Amino acid sequence: MEAAGGEMVAARWDFSSWPPVPELGLGNTCRCAFITVSLNARSIYPEVPSADHTLYIHAEQFHPERATWLASQVGLKILGEPQMSAL
C-alpha cells in the first residue's frame, strides 16, 4: 500500500483453489479462486478515486456464501451486495 502512494491501483492474487467448506456443503473448487484489492479507488477498475481501499473476494456466482465464509475466517464481514465482474 505504501508503494501505491496516492495512485489508484488494483492488484489481483490468484489461488490454485478454494478450500472445501463442509459446513456450507461446498467442496474445493478452482473456479474464481482469487481476490483483488483496490487501493485509492472505489471500484475493482481503478477509475474513481477514493481515500480508502477495498478488498474484493471473487467466488462462483452460484456460491457467494464462500466470500462471506472467507471474510469470517479473519473476523471480518462482507459490506455491500454481491457484484458481477468480468474478471
TrEMBL record:
This is Uncharacterized protein.
